[in-house]
């Protein structure tokens, strides 16, 4: 008996169109049913400066030889979060912009411990959440 496996790719259109669209897309992603999104670069909730900084950060992470490179890059201000965001680490996308990228560092596919992260063993980062497009300094 041959069993066929299918993969469903669910794409959200118009991320950046409005804050409501952005919230819905992020909620779908965080709940695990969205796999991708299309960006509406001329939408009211699109911020070109943030998009540029996000692209730079993701490219930097991909090019880094280890987490140590990311950790030690001063503009990122890499640090562990507390309270309801415990277990997440923040990478600034520009302090003046007020946006950040939240990540979970992995070691061999598992969450790395703080000792592994602030040592030099953690080598891969899984981006799991991008903060809502808002200024968290206001």
Mean pLDDT: 76
Oligomerization? single chain
Poorly predicted regions? 131-135
Question: Structural class given helices, strands, pairing?
Answer: alpha+beta
CATH names the topology of the largest domain as YaeB-like fold
Textual characterization of the structure:
Strand 4 (89-92) and strand 5 form a beta hairpin. The strands form two sheets. Strands 3, 4, 5, 6 and 7 form a five-stranded antiparallel beta sheet that branches. The longest helix has 16 residues, at 48-63. This protein has helices at 19-30, 48-63, 67-71, 114-118; strands at residues 11-15, 36-39, 79-80, 89-92, 100-107, 110-111, 124-130. The model is unreliable at 131-135 (pLDDT under 50). The radius of gyration is 17 Å and the shape is globular. The termini are far apart. By secondary structure, it is of the alpha+beta class. The protein has two domains: 1-46, no CATH class; 47-138, YaeB-like fold.
Summary keywords:
2 domains; alpha+beta; globular; 7 strands; 23% strand
Topology:
Elements (H helix, E strand, L loop, with lengths): L10 E5 L3 H12 L5 E4 L8 H16 L3 H5 L7 E2 L8 E4 L7 E8 L2 E2 L2 H5 L5 E7 L8
Parallel strand pairs: 1-2
Antiparallel strand pairs: 3-4, 4-5, 5-6, 5-7
Brief summary:
The chain has helices spanning 19-30, 48-63, 67-71, 114-118, and strands at residues 11-15, 36-39, 79-80, 89-92, 100-107, 110-111, 124-130. The protein has 138 residues and is of the alpha+beta class. The chain is globular.
């Amino acid at each position: 008996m041959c069993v066929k496996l299918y993969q469903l790719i669910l794409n959200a259109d118009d991320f950046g169109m409005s804050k409501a669209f952005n919230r819905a897309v992020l909620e779908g992603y965080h709940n695990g049913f969205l796999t991708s999104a299309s960006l509406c670069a001329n939408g009211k909730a699109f911020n070109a400066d943030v998009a540029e900084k996000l692209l730079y950060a993701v490219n930097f992470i991909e090019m880094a030889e280890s987490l140590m490179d990311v950790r030690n890059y001063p503009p990122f201000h890499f640090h562990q979060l507390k309270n309801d965001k415990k277990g997440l680490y923040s990478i600034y996308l520009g302090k003046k912009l007020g946006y950040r990228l939240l990540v979970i560092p992995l070691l061999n596919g598992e969450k790395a411990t703080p000792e592994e992260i602030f040592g030099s063993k953690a080598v891969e980062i899984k981006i799991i959440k991008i903060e809502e497009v808002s200024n968290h300094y206001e």
